[in-house]
């Protein structure tokens, strides 16, 4: 699998404390990857670095076939380069319908008012329908996002990110606060999304990670502690000591 994202020798300190310590790893094109690890392992900081929110003190972050350096690019430039990020808390426009939320996402970052002045083209309208079907909200297009359940809002936000067609989607704890049925549906959405793009999921819920059925990277103290299948990493004594055995 050819490399889409390469993080190499990256370190970041906050007030002298090394939150990320010589971190290196690669994500392949259209790869699903789970990132796990104890609180404070550096998972959020890793995503902050890749999305340009935090600048590393050392190391390289290279993107795409042409190994473009992401360091020095703004968050907006990195998003435009094809990296989408889903935070834990859904950030949909509650007063707008599912249809409008997806349409706004397709138009790009212009603000909620833009939908009032915009005449959607046929391609965008067709794509809204496809996206709604992909996230399982095909029957909810006219509903206000604020009326959706927690799980449905999370799916809508994933749909809004997919609307921008990222080549890499970073997803922070997608299963948090979900019912078992919602978790199952979330798995299906992410597995489908990973057929055509890379998806990196930060998650604590091991059952959820198992369902993703992908390579797992265990972070600890800002570096990779173990990597491989879930069975491989969960049998690793170091992983049990620092994470699972707690
Ligand atoms: P995780 O997401 O795995 O729980 P984080 O990336 O949030 O871990 O944090 C890694 C370490 O860096 C933690 O010890 C955290 O307290 C510290 N840290 C993260 N961001 C900051 C910051 N802005 N200022 C100071 N310390 C930070």
From TrEMBL:
Species this protein is from: Ruegeria aquimaris
Gene that this sequence comes from: urtD
Name listed for the protein in its UniProt record: Urea ABC transporter ATP-binding protein UrtD
Record field: transmembrane: none
Family matches, as InterPro entries: ABC_AA/LPS_Transport, ABC_transporter-like_ATP-bd, ABC_transptr_urea_ATP-bd_UrtD, P-loop_NTPase
Nucleotide-binding among keywords: yes
Domain ABC transporter per the UniProt entry, residue ranges: 5-246
Cross-referenced Gene3D superfamilies: P-loop containing nucleotide triphosphate hydrolases
Protein keywords: ATP-binding, Nucleotide-binding, Transport
Tagged with keyword Nucleotide-binding: yes
A single GO molecular function term of this UniProt record: ATP binding
Coiled-coil zones: none
């Amino acid at each position: 699998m050819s490399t889409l994202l390469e993080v190499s020798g990256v370190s970041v300190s906050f007030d002298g404390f090394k939150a990320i310590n010589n971190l290196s790893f690669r994500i392949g094109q259209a790869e699903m990857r789970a990132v796990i690890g104890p609180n404070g392992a550096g998972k959020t900081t890793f995503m902050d670095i890749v999305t340009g929110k935090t600048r590393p003190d050392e190391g390289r972050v290279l993107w795409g076939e042409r190994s473009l350096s992401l360091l020095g690019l703004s968050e907006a430039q990195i998003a435009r380069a094809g990296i989408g990020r889903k935070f834990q808390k859904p950030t949909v426009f509650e007063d707008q319908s599912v249809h409008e939320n997806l349409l706004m996402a397709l138009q790009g970052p212009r603000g909620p008012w833009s939908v009032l002045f915009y005449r959607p083209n046929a391609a965008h309208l067709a794509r809204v329908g496809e996206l709604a079907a992909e996230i399982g909200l095909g029957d909810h297009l006219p509903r206000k996002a604020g009326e959706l359940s927690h799980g449905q809002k999370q799916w809508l936000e994933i749909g809004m990110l997919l609307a921008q067609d990222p080549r890499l989607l970073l997803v922070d704890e997608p299963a948090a606060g979900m019912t078992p049925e919602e978790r199952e549906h979330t798995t299906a959405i992410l597995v489908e999304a990973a057929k055509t793009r890379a998806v990196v999921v930060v998650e604590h819920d091991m059952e959820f990670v198992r369902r993703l059925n992908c390579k797992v990277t265990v972070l600890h103290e800002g570096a990779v502690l173990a990597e491989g299948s879930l069975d491989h990493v969960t049998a690793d004594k170091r992983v049990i000591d620092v994470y699972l055995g707690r």
